[in-house]
Design brief:
Order of helices and strands: EHEEEHHHEEEEEEEEEEE
Helix content: 10-25%
Oligomer: single chain
Radius of gyration: 24 Å
Number of helices: 4
Strand order of the largest sheet: 10-9-13
Largest sheet: 3 strands, antiparallel
């Protein structure tokens, strides 16, 4: 059996205050652990006027009724995943938004989430899992051509309603640059590319004949020298094709 814990919360568990600090991003990883040793097993109702409730017993009772109602197979539910969801919910009852695809969305993740969310609601807390799905994006494998059947790529969130967003990671190469971007290709007088320039979308674009000073991507943290380039031509590489539910590409 294995359990899942939110990475940052597991690493930075504060024994002094018996709580998990809130992580900026929640990633789950398997840790050998049965359900019973979850650090915190009880949760006080939202009105704080009643005694703490045993969340494991409450959630398991709801989960059993869910399986019976939906005709789901209890044997396919991962208790380690449920243990992780319970730890997360007890630590942050007003900010419960887990990842449900660690094992199987339909057989385990969704059922575990619903059971924990219903338990929170029964105690007067409001989970944050009611997200609207109103767009379909490209997944990990983007079909390209026969010689290269798929393009491995991952999309990362960089902005929400005009506010920059960033992924933090102990590995600098996995951290992202926040904010909506624009990409320009700088070319010399013969039309040969000099470099591709990444900048924020609201920054002034580079102009032909004007020197551009920049750092190699990630190079500033590695002591790389600043680059100075004077392009003869500038081409915008980023073309907006879909925005706010509308296709932006002009019809041919």
């Amino acid at each position: 059996m294995s359990s899942l814990f939110t990475t940052n919360s597991f690493i930075h568990y504060d024994a002094t205050f018996d709580r998990f600090p809130c992580p900026v991003f929640c990633f789950l990883f398997p840790v050998p652990c049965p359900l019973s040793p979850v650090p915190v097993q009880t949760l006080r109702p939202a009105d704080a006027q009643q005694d703490p409730v045993d969340m494991i017993s409450l959630t398991k009772g709801i989960l059993g009724r869910l399986c019976e109602f939906l005709g789901a197979e209890p044997g396919k539910i991962h208790e380690g995943e449920l243990a992780a969801f319970l730890s997360y919910a007890v630590a942050y009852p007003g900010n419960f938004l887990p990842v449900i695809d660690s094992y199987s969305v339909s057989c385990s993740g969704l059922l575990n989430f619903c059971a924990v969310a219903m338990a929170l609601s029964e105690l007067g807390h409001r989970p944050r899992g009611e997200n609207e799905i109103n767009v379909v994006g490209v997944g990990t494998h983007l079909v390209t051509c026969t010689r290269q059947p798929s393009l491995g790529c991952v999309y990362k969130l960089v902005e929400v309603r005009g506010n920059p967003r960033m992924k933090f990671s102990e590995d600098p190469e996995k951290s992202t640059v926040p904010g909506k971007k624009a990409v320009y290709r700088l070319l010399d007088s013969e039309g040969h590319p000099q470099l591709d320039l990444l900048c924020l979308s609201d920054e002034p674009p580079p102009q032909p004949g004007h020197t551009v000073s920049c750092f190699p991507l990630g190079g500033r943290h590695q002591g790389a020298p600043r680059l100075a380039v004077t392009p003869t031509q500038v081409t915008c590489l980023r073309q907006e094709v879909f925005s706010k539910g509308q296709v932006r590409v002009a019809k041919e």
